[in-house]
Amino acid sequence: MKNLSSTWQKVIVWVTGYLNIIAFILAGGYFYKNTEDESVRYSAKTAFVITVIFAVISALQSLVSAILNLAEVNNAYLAMNKISYTVTVLKIVSFTVFCILDLCGIRFMKKTEEKKEPAKEEPKEEETPEIAE
Asked: Is residue 70 part of a domain?
């Protein structure tokens, strides 16, 4: 895997993030740990955040579905079907857009640089104007 270009590494990270969280952990973790290219590391971090967001949404979706099924709400199936469809479309669009933007080199989170403290200037004594009599 060392001979893969950074472009292919980024694509693999985003595709595995979309497909399965376990596959992403394996591929993203491997590329994050073994590459020295900062752009691939950035891709792995960003894909991790997006993958976790959609994993949480999926967990909440399952929880709401179970609660609605226990309450025997009549329109629960239709509502959950529409929510599921919407989340699936958003996931496809999100991963596709982020992958394309990453391949184009557009970053959303700026690298935080260490801010150098400006040299402290000694306070100058203010001259008080003398009043002429």
From this structure: yes
